[in-house]
Amino acid sequence: MAIQYETELYSPVKTFFEQRGFDIKAEVKHCDLVGIKADQTDPLIVEMKKTFNLSLLLQGLQRLKISPLVYLAVERNRSKRGAVNQRWSELTTLCRQLGLGLLTVTFYKTKAPLIDVLCEPAAISGTVRSRPVARKSGIRRQRLLKEFDERSGDYNTGGSTGRELMTAYREKAIRVAAALRSSGESSPAALARQTGVGSAAAILQKNYYGWFERISRGKYMLTVKGVEALTEHALMMQDQGLTAVETDTWTDYDPLNTFNVNSTESEVWGQEDLVQVAEVTERYLLNPTKN
Q: Mean of the pLDDT values across residues 85-114?
C-alpha cells in the first residue's frame, strides 16, 4: 500500500524509536525527527522521504556533522518493480559505507506498518571510528539540544512542509499571550513572573507574530491575532494547563464585554463610564497594527 505524503512515515518511525527508549520530537532545527535517550550523549536524527534519492542522502551527510546517530527512513513499496528504491542491497551498502543508518517502512491495508532496519549508523555498528565534531557543528548541536529541551511536547509532524511549526519560541509566546488574555493588560516583568518565561520582555517588544500591542509605557495587551492564535493552539494550552480560551469569533465583538468588571466595580464606574473607556481602547483591539 503506497503512501501519499512523507508525513505518513512519522508516526510509525516515532513509535519504533520510542520503543527503543527515545524521547521523540519532530521538526527540530530542520531535522525531521530528533530523539534523546537518557543513557546517550548523542542525539538521534532521522531524515525521511517517500523514496530514496540524492536529496535524502545529502541531508543525512549534513546531519552527521551534528550527531553520529543518523538514520534515513523511506517507504518500502513492494508494488514499484524496478524502481531505484527496490535496490535495497546496494542502497544498504552505500549507507553503511557513509556511516548512515537505513530503515524502511512497509504499509499495509489491514495491519500496522512494518519497519525493517537494513543497517545501523556506524556509531552503533562500530564499523567506522567516530570523528571529532567541528566547532561550527558543535554549536549547531548545542542549538539542536537546546531547542529540544525547551519544547514541552511533540506538537509537530515530521516531514511537514509549508506549515507553521510549534517551536520553543512559539510556546513561550503562547504562554505570554495566555497570561495577557487572562489579565487584560500587564507589564513584561509581571508576565515573566506569572509565566516563568524569562524572555517575556523580548517576546513582547519584538512581537514577531503580531500578537501583542504596546498600549503605554511598560504595558501590553493582546491583539485580535493573539486571541486567534490561542484558539488555534488550544491543544498545546490544554497540555500545559493554561487558561482555556473562548472560541467566540471577533465578528461579534462588543467593547463592553472585553472588560472583566465585577459587580462592585460596575456600580462605581457606571454604564456611561464603561462606554467611554471602551471607545478609547477599541482601536487597540480591532486595529492592532495602528498606533
A: 92
